[in-house]
Amino acid sequence: MKLKGAQVLQILLCFQPFTVSTRTYGTSGTLVDFTDPKVQGHLDALVRMAQSCVIKVRATPKDVRAYFTNSSPVSRSGQCFAACMLEQSDVINHGKVNRELLIHLASLVNGKSSRVVRKLTSISRLCLDSIEGLSDRCQLASTYNDCLNENMIEFAFPLDLAEEAVRKMPFHLIQANLPQEIRSLQY
């Protein structure tokens, strides 16, 4: 299932998923009002997308925490979690990065002329070099995501909100005694 509007915040790597309190966060001159219904809708959909990816790739709390704190994955399932998130958003499709969609999604929340979008426009192009020659879908997505994170560090998401997202993940559904129909969803 594609959640085309939901991935905006995940794509930016600076606004990751969850329902939050009435706080407004500012990063490097960019204010994001997480109580705004438009932003909250994207956040809620992003959480659902992440929950689906946790089940599909059997991601661990460490995998999800790394993703939502803009850290490199610590395992293969962490790499595949990044791939799942970027593929569900259509930013990566059949091993190809859709920079135009990435930038468009960022502009929906931040505005077309925002600092986030201006920097993402140049960094996303630079990060294409980091994945040249990679064919493994999980490694490709993870490497691209890592490049974006490393180069957009000033827009990183607050740790407490990332932890809140991790707490909402359905890790209990990936235990060894899962029914076959759920296990078959794995990558």
From TrEMBL:
Keywords: Signal. One of its GO terms (molecular function) is odorant binding. It comes from the Eukaryota. It holds the Pfam family PBP_GOBP. CDD domains: PBP_GOBP. Residues 1-21 form the signal peptide. Transmembrane segments: none annotated. This is Uncharacterized protein LOC113509443.
